[in-house]
Amino acid sequence: MTGMHTAFDLSFAHTEGRWARPGSWIGAGFPDVQVYQEIARTAERAGVDLLFFGDGSGIPDTWRGSMDAALEWGIQWPRHDMSPVVTSMAAVTEHIGFGLTYSSTFLHPFTVARLLNSLDHVTAGRIAFNVVASARSADAANYGFDERMDHDERYDRMSEFMTVCRELWASVPASAIIADRVTGRFADPAQISAIDHVGRYFRVKGPLASVPSPQGSPVLVQAGNSPKGIATSASFVELVFGFGASVAGQQRHRAALDAALTSEGRDPASVGILWATQAIVGRSALEAASRRDEVAAFWNEEAVGAFLSHNVGFDFSTLPASFTLDELVDEVKRVQGAQGGFVGALVAELGAETTLTRTELFEHGWRHATGLDHTLCGTAASIADQLEENFAATGGHGGYMFSSPLAAPSGAADLAELLVPELRRRGALAPRYPGATLRENLRG
């Protein structure tokens, strides 16, 4: 068993009421870079490996066919392109990595490959790329799609997208750059060539018109937990974000990933899973419980409905009085929604034949939206106990992607100043920044 790696998920550090909770900064909220610089400095002192930003470009509008609830309660919005913020965080740190998310469903691989190459230069080799197959209708509409792409086709497009990106990053090898000051020769043209990609979705001549970056390519990340998503990512993924709500679910995900990697001729031990873990850490159990109650008090049915409907891609306001989970899955498939996530976890937990009432579904949905169904709440010592037990039970390879439902920057600060040092004191963590790049640090 290797040591745990740690990451902080900052995707929603400012949404779902966090912006107003105790510990938020007055007059310096999202997207003030000072808040994010503070988080980056604090996390690096603790030796956190990665700061991660998910992304979405649409305002949630699936619930009741309207964006009003999301706008009113700040559900999954506002969302900015965080790449400029990452550059500001990199300027005040030296070792910690940064993960950015871009959609293979809507974007062009040349644009993304070029951008990430530049960011890897700016950060001196500390960039990771989380590629996603987008299922949200609000995002699709902003890119000119009248309807969402079929689930499996999204992953077919992702496969070709990543093939192009990887060919572009390899099209100008480091050895091609001569930079001879005496002769004036900059590069060896014999080592640089077009990729001449012609596929189902993309035509790209190449090569990438950029100097190779410190890592050569960003660390490649994927979070899809459907069978198609796991199979697609197995050819390229270096790090996986996992969402198993139970040990059994995590073990199933690990087994499915290992099988997919093996079928690609890759060593399963080469790819770790960072398990998404929301944590509320207090200096006492009572303090942690009080903070959990603050989070729970924010959520009403409109906020829950907007959250669930947006992330699944199905309008939960249309549910009948009762239904089987099998029927729900069929409806989600019919509208090309996300079959993993909340719905997939519910089926895994309760079984496809289970009948739920609308009220019961929203009780499960409330726990999912708040994250309280997978939140570790307590002192640093009690949470560390649970993490060590879970890490052993899920294969002992990877670590945890921590998020906080508390205010920014104090929620992240508690994780960095209380929980992470407790894990390091126990010897549970991987070595602190053993390499010069993010990829090297994640392998340490």
TrEMBL record:
Return the EC number: 1.14.-.-
Pfam families reported for this sequence: Bac_luciferase (PF00296)
Drop me one GO molecular function for this one.
monooxygenase activity
* Annotated keywords: Flavoprotein, FMN, Monooxygenase, Oxidoreductase
What the entry lists under InterPro entries is as follows: Diverse_substr_monoxygenases, Luciferase-like_dom, Luciferase-like_sf, NTA_MOA
Domain Luciferase-like spans what residues? 25-397
Family as reported in the entry's similarity comment: Belongs to the NtaA/SnaA/DszA monooxygenase family.
The protein's name is NtaA/DmoA family FMN-dependent monooxygenase
Organism name: Herbiconiux gentiana
